[in-house]
Amino acid sequence: MNLFIGNLGQASVIVAFVAAAVAAYGYFQAARGRALGEADANWLRLARGAFFVHGAAVLLVVGALFNIIHAHRYEYYYAWAHSSNHLPVHFMISCFWEGQEGSFLLWIFWHVLIGLGIMKFNRQWEAPVLAVFAAVQAFLVSMILGVVVGGTKIGSSPFILLRDFLTDLPVWKTQPDFVPKDGNGLNALLQNYWMVIHPPTLFLGFALTLVPFAFAIAGLWKKELTTWVKPALPWTSFGGAVLGVGIMMGAYWAYETLNFGGYWNWDPVENAIFVPWLVLIAALHGMMLWQKRRTGLRTAFVLVVATFVLILYATFLTRSGVLGAASVHSFTDLGLSGQLLIYLGFFTVLAITLLVNRWKSIPVSDKELDAYSPEMWVFVGATVLCLAAFQVVFTTSIPVYKAFLGFFGIKANMALPADQVAFYTRIQLWSGVLIALLSGIGQVMWWQRNNKESVINAFAPTVMLALLGTALGVLLLRYFDHPITVPYALLLAAGLFGVLANFGTLFGLWRRGVTLSGGAVAHIGIALMLLGMLGSSGYDNLLSRNVTGQLINQKMSEEENSDNVLLLRNETIKMQNYDVTYTGQYLDVPGVPGYVNTQLLYRTDDEYKAVARGDIKREEKVYYKTGDTLEILPENTYYRVNYEDKKTNESFTLYPRAQVNEEMGGILASPALQRYLGHDIYSHITSIPDPRKEQPWSPSIPHELAVGDTIFLNDYFAVFRAIEQAHAVPGVKLQPGDIALQADIIVSGEKGRQYHAHPIFLLRDRQVGRVPDEVEDLGLRLTLDQIDPVKGKFTFGVSTTAKDYIVLKATAKPFINLLWGGTLLMGLGLCISIRQRRTAKAAPVAKPAAGRAGAARPQAVA
């Protein structure tokens, strides 16, 4: 047992907590009673030094935690619970943040880097802003303290020993220093490259929401009620971009890994992350209004505070256990609910108290807003975002209401919607329509002087083109017998309007010599995302329709039997324009490109090792020779499915996967994707023979053969080619004096396919052993039962079983790339707006179009 690294990590956690508390107090004293930028030098020096110590301690904690994972130190519960011996390094990184403690630590780490960035770029605001930052850090680090004070546990340490966590195991009585040889492992669904980059991106977005909150609190505290907006704006734009892209990374992971057929399931945890982003974008618009038009400051304050409070509320939802079985994403309750509520309550009360005290002092614009005021349309857009967020968070919080009422002994019958996708989509679709429309209206009106004539001239071509495009889309949908509802038609029209209006704004600015508008680029991205959602979710095309009239499985519903096809191995069926063939099972072999057919592998007693039955090669390169022992990754089995388009003669191969996962209900499947510019072919397995159950075999039928004989086996014929010495026996370690003989039999299957079978006959100390061989494609098992050396005869036992199969569902998802491309465009636009603000003084000012009085701005609303 290595206790040093754990003690070092735990000591570093304590140092990080104390240093954060000292930094918070030091920065508070440095800023107290002094004007902005005139902090007390002594207190500032102490606070800055404490923050540096805090950052160094956090880095030590990060290094210690990764060390216990990477070095397989299973004496620590965190390493045992989340990792295993056979994980590659990049998945060990995923193990780091799979648990609650690691994800808190990731969040803390990002705060350290952002705090250092504020020291460098916003030195005037350092003391009041980092006072808030350091206080938040102290609360976050308390979540991983894992100490008991006065009988109360504070936090959950990632460095707790396994024996201290699983105290009831009897092994500790006989072996107090027992260390498991392997860990529990990383959930196989999380063994995906998106899980390496999605959580850090998401938590960076979480961390960035603290920046505008800290600036707003500092502004309220120091009575700098207007000046905080300018330095906070770039951080807010960056936070909106990072958090939005991080959320969509999670959606792409779900699309690529889970088999519910989409990318967003309105799961409570998904909602808890989505809601703060909506409010953050609304806050960004409010801040921009004040910065450029000197209106909406109170709105900006409220929305910035609400964003951070919602982040804390999302943390409570996902980590307190209150969601229970309502979400597959939620963490288990580690007893931190009380701390999370204190954390949420402290900063909520602090922010509301400061807002109430300063409310009357916050400047209010005297400008009257009317239908020709771009500010009004931005306000309306922010309101729509907030209403959409409210509807989602109100419904998602139903388990919280029930828990709260239950605390007082009141039994409530409230429940989350049975069909949450239909429930949320029905309402949020209208939010999407309004957002797409307002994104175009706001941008066009922002960049011109507005009166009745200028507005009509600006919007008439865009509206006509959008309606024309919608009419064409409706006609095409009806031509191909797709339904078109009024809400879908309106979303199509609104999305096209959003794209065209913002593109027209960019084109107009380019003609007037104005730099690229980040806001217009971001709004084009949002509109494209909405169109991508409409096309991929509303008009996906089911390819795998069961036209045989036969039930696949009586346990499946009528809809499932209708929407899936049964694929027997090596039998081709027609699926619309495609001929589809399931050709076998494959495994991932580290170091070998692609996947390796299980027919080339003998499995051994060690589930992570196999013996090559033949040369494993790619093109001319041989990676393993026959008889070599190699490592495999057994968590997933890949099922090779060939598609051939009969119209174009194009063919491609997909490898949907399935895994056995007892904790998540048995067999889990992940889809495979064939990507095209205009659509994806999305294929996933619905059912397979349960690999945990032994397949029933028929009684063995004996066949006496000589070398060169041919026999018929289960509708196939086989040739007994040779008998030869076996130098390796799967699952058996040969000893001196052992005699191992293997038969070489070639079985000819359908379409000329040939299979090698090598049943083995083993003699050891006059004892006979037999190792059968299976031809899974054909459902055959051959055993070399007896050898008659005098007659030169060999007796083989032949058993048969049901043929291997999969049940497949395949869907074409049109315009899905609009969603992913729109996400990147949205993030790019927000980043462009950051750059524009930094170079605003050098940017040329646009010449406003003729019309109502009012100056056009060189910056667009983000």
Automatic annotation (TrEMBL):
Arranged from A to Z, the UniProt key words for this protein are:
Cytochrome c-type biogenesis, Membrane, Transmembrane, Transmembrane helix
- Give every Cytochrome c assembly protein domain span: 100-320
Q: Where is the signal peptide?
A: none
Top-rank lineage group of the source organism: Bacteria
Instruction: List all membrane-crossing ranges.
Output: 6-28, 49-69, 104-122, 129-149, 202-221, 233-253, 273-290, 297-316, 336-356, 377-401, 421-446, 458-480, 486-509, 521-539, 815-834
Pfam family of this protein, just one?
A: Cytochrom_C_asm
List, alphabetically, the InterPro entries matched: Cyt_c_assembly, Cyt_c_biogenesis
PANTHER family (UniProt xref): CYTOCHROME C ASSEMBLY PROTEIN-RELATED, CYTOCHROME C-TYPE BIOGENESIS PROTEIN CCMF
Give the protein family: Belongs to the CcmF/CycK/Ccl1/NrfE/CcsA family.
Q: What is the protein's name according to its record?
A: Cytochrome c biogenesis protein CcsA
What is the gene name? ccsA
